[in-house]
Amino acid sequence: MSALGDVCCTLPVACALKDEGIATEIVWIADKRFAALAKQCDAIDEVISLEKSQLKKRAWVKELGEFDVALDMQGLLKSGLLVGAARAKRRLGFHWQREGARLFSSPVMPDPSSLHVVDQYVDVARALGCQTHRARFGLAPAPEEQASVAAKLAERGVNGPGYALINAGAGWASKRWSPSKNAHLAAALMERGRPVVFLGAPGDRPIFEEVQSHCSTPPVDIVGHTSVAELTALIHGCAVHIGGDTGSTHIAAALGRPCVGIYKVNDPRRTCPYGQFIHTLEGDPDPNDVLRVAERALAG
Predict the structure, then answer these.
(1) Residue where one domain finishes, among candidates 126, 159, 177
(2) CA angle 126, 131, 135 (to 5 degrees)
């Protein structure tokens, strides 16, 4: 509910429950800023776009009907309050419960073999009887979103897939790779004939403008020009995605796109692009090292 990457990384819970017949109907509550991503998951039947005002008066949750189980996958007070208000026979939650969230649901401790946060989320589904061994995200952009993104890229001189996507932003400043190194990497990719597109939210524009200030040849700028639904389509068409521990990185991994993760703060064993630890660099790597990993990811 609080971040795009969190929504993405929890989608395999819905897929596991639906794929194995544990759940026949799944209702998902998500922050209205990120609800469009949940709507692109083929395992979710209904998505409720949550407004802040709905947290104060929660009678509407009971009106959703009775559920066999309510799951708190975020483990914060706001998610706990919603789970607590649900008419559910059971209430389970992700093991990392904060702000009193465990007052409303029982935490499911992860299996010792579940190192990645996605696998730890899926452990909640396993507690309900799922036997899945590999997370499935069920994400796919709609044709109209793909067409919209294709038109926006064409306006900027990019025709067709095969471009490299770079996200220079992140929710925390400490997670961001330096603008000058992003610019160096973009230049190296363009020198090799690869179109380079920078993406991001509207709030990332100052970061991108600083990247631009270091570029002799300007990369393609689509920062702040895509909706969340279009973001999935944009990532779906890329040849490789490069970024830190941020939402677009996790979406790229969910879509099976080659990802290069630059992890300055968080432990990549826990939050790397799912299934692509081999393409992850820690600390503050040199752009040439990132380029080598990107070329390896492109080669498959």
Answers:
(1) 126
(2) 80
